[in-house]
Amino acid sequence: MTTAAARQRTQHAAQDSHAIVFDTVSKRYPDGTVAVEALDLTLPAGELTVLVGPSGCGKTTTLRMINRLETLSSGCIRIGDRDVMESDATQLRRHIGYVMQHSGLFPHQTIADNIATVPRLLKWPKSRITARVEELVELVGLDAGLIRRYPHQLSGGQQQRVGLARALAADPPILLMDEPFAAVDPIVRTHLQDELLRLQARMGKTIVLVTHDIDEAMKLGDRIAIFNQNGRIAQFDTPTRLLAAPADEFVVDFIGADRELRRLALQQLDPEEIDPGVHVAGSATVGDARTRLQQAGSSGVVVLDEAHRPLGWLDWERLRQADGLSRIEQLELTPWRHRLHERTNLRSALNALISAPGDVMPVVDDDGRYLGVISQVQLTRRLS
Amino acid sequence: MNPEWIASHTDDILAALIQHVQLLGLSLLFGLLIAFPLALLAIRWPRLYAPSLAITGVMFSIPSLALFILLMPLTGLSMATSLIGLTLYTLLILFRNIVEGLRGVSPVVCEAARALGYSRVRRLLQVELPIALPVIMAGIRIAAVTVIGLITVTALIGQGGLGQLFITGFTLSFTTPLVVGFVLSVLLAVAVDLALVGLLWWLTPWQRGRTS
């Protein structure tokens, strides 16, 4: 316990040195356009910060100033306590991972060579590079058989995974991602987003991700900076806070009309709200079930199998018509199309409930065992 | 055709062939040494592109014989004269293809190289140049075949590789050297072209099996 806590503390100390601090940073182009104006922003170490906003709002410029792909006009950016402008640009970039929209893989190199780019620039020994490439291929979920191929032989989603592996190759503490999932189809995108969250839970890197998609921002960001058209930040907050207390009209508009639904997506079922409900075993008789229902005053009953897993819904009408001595499992039950997991978010719960028989849904644990029910009435109460 | 003449002049024919290859190799080498930095300048400062193209274009359009005669007062009847002339002829094609090749490299790829920490020189040598190689090689092939033909003309200033066989043929009104010179120069052009294609294939494994 003590050692684990100590380790965590040292990790935190190490991570703090990788917070990214913008101190009155501006970027003006020679033609007079202002991309970013007097930006003050601290991106906490070990967190995934999303920069989001309409196109031309300066979010990409902000990202690119961190590894000096763009030079700032005034102000200063520090990583930990080091001013980025004081370090050598090439060296700096080798220690900051970078993922771009179109994977930007080198067409003339194999997948393995692409992934090995930064370790090679850092002159790692060959054996270490080979081992690292194998590790990364597994980490990002690529088929090991692909590493001798060339980028044009891979699908867009696979290329994007290679791009991520290449960015992570030298295990940089900071990862910059410029619209990394914008060019892949929606299904692959969802998948890649989930993978990123899974990886980040393990890696705890300081990640800065640019997107124009507010849904993506809400899903991925520990914190979100919403930029307005003037290259200024309208609000910088956690997703929950953005939804609960948007700073101004611009933020409200940007988050969109379905703000309440988004808010639900960030909340989980409260265990207190799970009602034990009325349930009977499939082996019970119709008479038993009637007695239970009449006592509880419910409109129907959840039928469970021997392993305590929900089989289906049985309403009062059908129970009334059945022969009192027959067994429940012999009757026709109304099955549910979904099961709600105890850690599901409220938005999915609401979606599932809309089509549920009896307006209730069974909630189950990891093994699919019945915990109770949640009703539409309860959820609607939370909405208001 | 006179096989006896061929048999008795094998050494001369071989020497002519070797000189032909030497002139070809050297003029391509010098051509690349000049065209490459010129192309880099024209990419860095796009305003230089049009004038560079115009100047190399004018050189390409000067009749070859006239060019060698123009150079004569400066460098005399030497290998230098023929090399300078031949090199000038390669410049237009090499310059244009190097610029096109390097410009054709996807900006996304260049950006990726920058973002990952490639220095400028390393990016040029390890990313842009290899990717531009097919286009550059196409230029080298055209330049090579053009120069192989032109070398014969330099025989008139006492150089000329296989071209000397033509001079011999004309002066003696004797067809055998003409035919030998002609056949060898065509064979050389085909062989060099095939060799360059093979070299490109060997250097660009990522292009194999790709329909282009």
From TrEMBL, chain A:
InterPro entries: AAA+_ATPase, ABC_transporter-like_ATP-bd, ABC_transporter-like_CS, CBS_dom, CBS_dom_sf, P-loop_NTPase. The keyword Transport applies. Coiled coil: none annotated. Residues 20-255 form the ABC transporter domain. One of its GO terms (biological process) is quaternary ammonium group transport. Keywords: ATP-binding, CBS domain, Nucleotide-binding, Transport. GO terms for molecular function: ATP binding; ATP hydrolysis activity. The keyword Nucleotide-binding applies. Residues 333-384 form the CBS domain. Belongs to the ABC transporter superfamily. This is Osmoprotectant transport system ATP-binding protein. The lineage of its organism: Bacteria, Pseudomonadati, Pseudomonadota, Gammaproteobacteria, Oceanospirillales.
Automatic annotation (TrEMBL), chain B:
Keywords: Membrane, Transmembrane, Transmembrane helix, Transport. It comes from Kushneria sinocarnis. Pfam families: BPD_transp_1. CDD domains: TM_PBP2 (cd06261). One of its GO terms (cellular component) is plasma membrane. The keyword Transport applies. Signal peptide: none annotated. Residues 17-196 form the ABC transmembrane type-1 domain. Belongs to the binding-protein-dependent transport system permease family. PANTHER family: GLYCINE BETAINE/L-PROLINE TRANSPORT SYSTEM PERMEASE PROTEIN PROW, OSMOPROTECTANT IMPORT PERMEASE PROTEIN OSMW. GO terms for biological process: glycine betaine transport; transmembrane transport. InterPro entries: ABC_transp_perm/SBD, MetI-like, MetI-like_sf. It is a multi-pass membrane protein. This is Osmoprotectant transport system permease protein. Its main location: membrane. It is found in: Cell membrane. The chain crosses the membrane at residues 20-41, 48-71, 77-95, 131-158, 178-203. The keyword Transport applies. It comes from the Bacteria.
